[in-house]
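A further point concerns the way the authors explain their paired sequence and structure data. Showing the layout once, in full, would remove most of the difficulty. For illustration, here is how one protein appears when written out as sequence plus C-alpha cells:
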Amino acid sequence: MNISPDSIVLWHWGPMVVNATIAWTWLVMTLLTLGAWLITRHLTDDTRMTRWQNLLEVIVTGMRDQIREVSRQDPGPYLPFVGTLFLFVATCNLLAIVPGYTPPTGSLSTATALALSVFVAVPLFGIAQQGFATYFRRYLRPTILMLPFNIIGELSRTIALAVRLYGNIMSGTVIVAILLSFVPFFVPVLMKLLGLLTGMIQAYIFAVLAMVYIASATSSQEPDADRDSKPSPNTEP
C-alpha cells in the first residue's frame, strides 16, 4: 500500500522522475486553467447568463464574503491568492472519487509547497499594506528580545499548516485502502464520501487560515497608549 503519491513513479529517465504527485498536480492545474478559460470566455452582464457563469459568480461571491468576514477588509487584493488556494486544494480532494487517482495534497511535498506559498505571501501582503518598516516593526514588539521568538512563531505555524493538510488527506486515503482489503464494497464507498466531505472542509480550513495569517499581517495595530492619547470626538476643548 502506497501511503504517499510520492512513492508512485509513473515515468523515469535518468535523473528525471515523474511521480504521481507531479502528474496529478499538473492534471489539476490543467483542469482549473481550462475550466477558467471555458467559463470566462463568454462572460456577460445580462440577466440571461449561462449556468456555468452563474455557478462561477456564486463561488466568487461566497469567497469574497468569507474573506471580508475574516479580514474585515476589502477582499479584492486577497481574492486571487486565497481563492486559488481553495480551488486547488478542493479540486485535488474532489478528484479522489476517480479510480486510480491519488490526491497530491496527500503528499507532504505538496502540502509544504502550499504552506510555503502562504509563508511568502503573508509578509508580501503586509509590506504592500503597511510598508516595509512598519510591518517588520511588529517582530520587535514588545521588545527586540522577542525577534527570534516571533520568527519561530511564523515558521511553526507554516509547519502546522502543512502537516494539518497532509495528515488529514493522507489518513483518509490510508483508511479507505485498508477497508477495501478487509470489508465489502459498501463500507469503503461510504468512507470515500466521508473523505470527500473531509477534503472540502480541509480546503476551506486551509484557505481561511491563510486569510487569517494575511489579515493579521495587513491589519494596523496601533499601541493602546497611542489610541488612548487620541482625543475623543465627544471630548470638549
